[in-house]
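Section: Multi-chain targets

For targets with more than one molecule, the full set of components is provided together so that the structure can be written out for the assembly as a whole rather than chain by chain. Components appear in the order listed by the source. The example entry contains two components.
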Amino acid sequence: MLDQRFDPAEAEPRLYKAWEENGCFKPSGDTSAQAYSIVIPPPNVTGVLHMGHALNNTLQDVLIRFERMRGKNVLWQPGTDHAGIATQMVVERQMAESGENITRRDMGREAFVDRVWEWKEESGGAIVGQLKRLGASCDWSKEAFTMGDRNHPDNNMMRAVTKVFVELHKKGLIYRDKRLVNWDPHFQTAISDLEVDQREVPGHYWHLRYPLADGVTYMHPIKDEDGNTVETEMRDYIVVATSRPETMLGDTGVAVHPEDPRYAGLIGKFVELPIVGRRIPIIADEYADPDKGSGAVKITPAHDFNDFEVGKRAGHTPLNILNATAHIVDGEEADTAGIPAEYRGLDRFDARRKVVSAFEEAELLQEIENLKIEQPFGDRSNVVIEPWMTDQWYVDAKTMAKPAIAAVKEGKTKFVPENWEKTYFNWMENIQPWCVSRQLWWGHRIPAWYAPTIEQLESDQAYFPGKVFVAESEEDMLAQAREYYGSEIEVSVVDTGIGGAKIWGGGTSAGKASSANIARDPDVLDTWFSSALWPFSTQGWPDKTADLDTFFPTATLVTAFDIIFFWVARMMMMSLEFMGEVPFKDVYIHALVLDEKGQKMSKSKGNAMDPLELVDEYGADALRFTMGRMAGQGRNIRLSKQAVEGNRNFATKLWNAARFAEMNECGAPGEIDYDRVESPVNRWILSELSQCAAEVSKGIEDYKFNEAAGALYKFIWNTLCDWYLELIKPLLAGMDDAAKQETRMVCGYVLDESLKLLHPFMPFVTEELWERRAEGRAEAKGFLMHQSWPSTEPFTDEAAAEEINWVIDMITELRSLRNDLGVPAGSKLPLTLVNAGAEIENRAMSHEDVLKRLARLEDISMTDTTPEGAVTAVIGETMSALSVADIVDIDEARKRLDKELAQLDKDIKSTEGKLSNEKFVSRAPPEIVEENRERIRDWTTRREKLKAARKGLEGL
RNA sequence: GGGCGGUUAGCUCAGUGGUAGAGCACUACGUUGACAUCGUAGGGGUCACAAGUUCGAACCUUGUACCGCCCACCA
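Its structure, encoded as tokens over all components, is:
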């Protein structure tokens, strides 16, 4: 006997364990079947399941369970991402909080990395357990990690990353370059453009006067509000504006537009840079916009991306004024830039204040403008990013993007919804070199080594970068080195163990002429570098494996749009380069999960909903179904607790339908022969079922999860429970054994088929019912999750549908009538059908039990003449008489008829108008015209009957 | 500055040319041994605005307004 209700808290862990222990998530291995694979977007190993994960993984699991039931050889590849900065951050924080009073630098690189591994093994990957609670049917035996397994240093994940780096380097697609990067002074590492957030913050423009050198003056025009020059003023200075005054310490020039008449005479002259006293030239460059600010712009090539380009054009050597922690430089660099002692070592913001007050004191501060400015912030550190000159490794993304663009253009990979292709193209066509080196310790170490060149060695010079060896292993590197140096020179590998890009900038003393010290690049690769290989590295690449053959390329990638650039684009590039194929056929981009007010959920806003709490409260099925029902294409999803509650109720509804089936001995018949089903109500539900099956399949195939889930909701609740189960009650309680047997069989069958259709969305409650409806069935036939997907062949019986729909309409209208006329809910009415005609009379008689039961009728009789002293109404097209005694509100009956007559008149009139329009009749498709004609005929008949009924009410 | 999307019932949203829909909320009534995590019935919308295309527009076109988001080096 089924319990009163489903208990997710008890059932879900039990069912999940059973699936897992029975290897249900593994591919079927049926090589004759089509392979279907999805790689999970690997959550950070530090991650905690949030709503985005819940949506993302629910949708993947729906696809996976659907295709598995359709008989494909299915793999859902799980795993986690080592998440360089995030993980290093977590462990460092933990160390700080533990009171050990030891920093990562105190520990040294090796010990720290060990510590991170320990953390990963002990407390990392909690999210995996959370995915299991959602019901994710990943093949956990294949769980992967972007850093591989430290106990097997030869693991393929490590080899894959190294191989890719080395080969790209060989092809010239990875190179070293010294240029401006986005430098994060908090983490002291370079980050990529994508890891920088532009945020609007309150700020200022300081308008600074730079005195002209050599006594030069010029006439500056003063304009009025309309832009007309009203007077001119003689100036011995030029005004520049900046939001970062401290950068003036590194200015190498002032640029004006070559055609700006105001400054034409100043080009080639110099300004005397305050504070540092350096003479810097006024140059002409089109970058200077005459309409912005004063039209003159200070140029700081070492600390601004635009200025870098301008400086390069003008032949200026960039002057670095900041160190890795964004303090003003000291020592040699400070000497070069002429930075006064009192500025050296200052924090950048202290330096800013000091610079501003120096200008103020010198009466060179023309104006301070208060406004909002866009500033770059590190997306993880939340500190202001500085453009900074460093040596880094870059991937030539521009070259690699070309095939990736073509593949989408050719339709080898499709975006769903399609409009995301635009976003993809826009990004790819304007792609910048991808900075892949990070000054961190946690990650894939760059397989590059630096050594002195032979010339440097001979002259005992400091070397940097010297000779660069890029190799898949230290042995390979040493082989290269021996070949390079010859047998005379001894080679030894040293590990400086110190991170930070600048270590190479200072120069390292060379070894003696007879021996060369070689040091490995201390930096690691951007986490996304290894994530980019995920679709093939997880299948064993670079080894040739059976899994790689079978499951690459994958079928579908399911992800949110915010990851298109970080991940999708890079997987495309890497797959095409190394596998010669796209990594996935479809990219389904789903919505973001927002709160009820449409705000992004975040911990800091305090509006984050915890998916696990919802699972605790309502069950995983309810949350999953909610996600499914809301996952249309494009839109954001606003999640509310109420919605989840409603879908929990849906699960309860299903559960109770199963209880009803159990009580009425509607068992599990297995396959049934549709042709032998006779009763219209049973034939009708079978046709409704087949339609539902088709809609669910189509919905999932087209990634219209909301349509699939909506069809299920409607079928199970509104069709199956509200009507079918009610309509068969008389049959199940009746004396006709044949009909009873047939109905039990069909009811049981439809319920089982519904469980299959619902399973991808609600795996737990359906699996539980599958087993509970026929004890031991799981053992005999296997789990529900391994059953075959229901047929989507249409089964229709129009006659049965028409008949049952007539019954449904009749009941609905009678119920509505009773309500409107104030008939007490408990009282049973006698119903008389007037001149109904043979077909209707037959229907009424064959469904008498159901009509009486569901419309609360005393009895049903037929007559040829309108009865005296009765209230008549029109139901469908049949005039029906009800005894006056039962009707509480005759006035309401009149009103009801009047209202309906008025509406009918209006409808008829407007449709007649349409039909009398010659253009409509001649140009509209004939079936539409006919539809309108028929409508008028029906309405007119009905109107006649309504009028007669209304007349009958006059005297009452 | 460029791009994308949105505007339909009180709320959250479906609905891509043929009589405006669902869930929740609301109102009334609850009887039938699957279900009160429920049932039955009901109220509620010039589909943001304007012009156009069409026999016919929530839907196609153009424009306007407002709201989101993404990308971009404005001193």
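Chain A has 33 helices and 32 strands.
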